[in-house]
Amino acid sequence: MIHRHALRVYYEDTDLAGIVYYANYLKFIERARTEWVRGLGIDQGRLKSEAGIVFAVRRIEGDYLRPARFDDELVVETRAEAVTGARIVLEQVVTRGGERLFQAIVMLVCLTEAGAPARVPAELRRQLAPALH
User: Fold this and answer.
1) Rounded Cα distance, 26 and 119, in Å
2) Positions marked catalytic
3) Where are the domains of the chain?
4) If I label 32, which of 38, 77, 123, 131 is the partner at 20 to 30 A Cα–Cα?
5) Cα-flanking dihedrals φ and ψ of residue 114, to 5°?
6) What is the pLDDT of residue 133?
7) Nearest to 3 by CA among 26, 27, 34, 24
8) pLDDT tens profile 73-113
9) Stated pTM of the model
10) Does residue 28 have a pLDDT over 70?
11) Which residues of 20-32 are buried (b: 16+ CB within 10 A; e: fewer)?
């Protein structure tokens, strides 16, 4: 199951060369992850308030393949690769007209609000299971 999140490149997203500033791809994929989770029916605010659980990026491996420019229409594709007891691994790809511009493997970890490691709740693992690649 692939989640797709569309976005447009604004002037503020670009650098002096007129291309998307490299760090902004991380913002793009963060927004797409938030929408992916929301699309799965997971309320992150409620998860935090009721279970004291939050997610954090532990590791990201990204490849910049081609530049995006001002006013480009992009799509971020998010797909779950693995869900274990305490982590979620995702593949995220930014495309323009089907052409890959950026791709990343993102490892999320489950933490308590105090920052201690926590297990992904069993119900959440069940919700994520159908989304696995």
Assistant:
1) 25
2) 15
3) 3-131
4) 123
5) -80, -5
6) 59
7) 34
8) 999 999 999 998 889 999 999 999 999 999 999 999 999 98
9) 0.91
10) yes
11) beeebbbebbeeb
State the pLDDT at residue 123. 76
Q: What percent of the residues of the chain are helix, what percent strand, and what percent coil, each to the nearest 5?
A: 30, 45, 30
Just give the CATH number of 3-131: 3.10.129.10
Q: What is the Cα Rg of the chain in Å?
A: 16
pLDDT at residue number 1: 81
**Lookup: tokens for 26:** 């991380």
Q: What is the pLDDT of residues 56-74, one digit of tens each?
A: 999 999 999 999 999 999 9
Helices and strands per DSSP (H, E), number in the chain: 3, 5
Instruction: Yes or no: say if 123 and 129 are a contact pair by the CB < 8 Å rule.
Output: no
For residue 114, what are its two tokens? 């105090």
**Number of neighbours of residue 112 by Cβ within 10 angstroms:** 13
What is the C-alpha to C-alpha distance for residues 58 and 44, in angstroms, rounded to an integer?
A: 18
